Amino acid sequence: MYIVGITGGTGAGKTTAIRSIVGPGAKALDCDAVYHELLLNNSKMKAEISNRFNNVTTDGKIDRQKLGKLVWNNPDSLSVLNKITHKYINDEIDRRLEQFQKQGIKTILIDAIALIESGQGKKCDVLICVTAPEEKRIARIMERDNLTEEQAKKRINAQKPDGYYRENCDYVLENIYETSAEFEKKCIEFFKDLKGKNQWGIERS
Fold first, then answer.
1. What are the chain's domains?
2. What percentage of the chain's residues is helix, strand, coil (to nearest 5)?
3. pTM
């Protein structure tokens, strides 16, 4: 099983990059989606978050908007939240990797903004970061998450700069294209070339 790590800041285009390669024989694990599932279903993680952050629950559930307002404005609070959540996300990713291996899946793509900081990157055979101009990222985040420009900028500023990802990854995919279709085409070419270099054995439909 070949594990590919995809990382980079929010709004850079990681989802498009992964969409270009996922198909028969290749599966993706979205750590952000796993986190959202755990917020709903993992009582231990929810309890830890509730005990550390006051007034972030609504009707017994973690209110992501309330929690977000606390952590996106405070790097220390974001660091505390990450320390809590990373261990639960890592355990769940490990469980799913084991399942995929039993199913005979040849290639796994792990999609995570905090891929390196969380330790997930150590599981990967290759690390790829996706970057994009900040103004494009801001526009995508505003449209995708229904945020103001100020809120989008705060999210970006709370994350690692592009230089961090470049220094810690094996390859860089620069999303400088006007449309996601153009970028996806570039990604298909990139992964086809990388597959040849690394003998992936990925089957695309």
1. 2-195 (3.40.50.300)
2. 55, 15, 30
3. 0.86
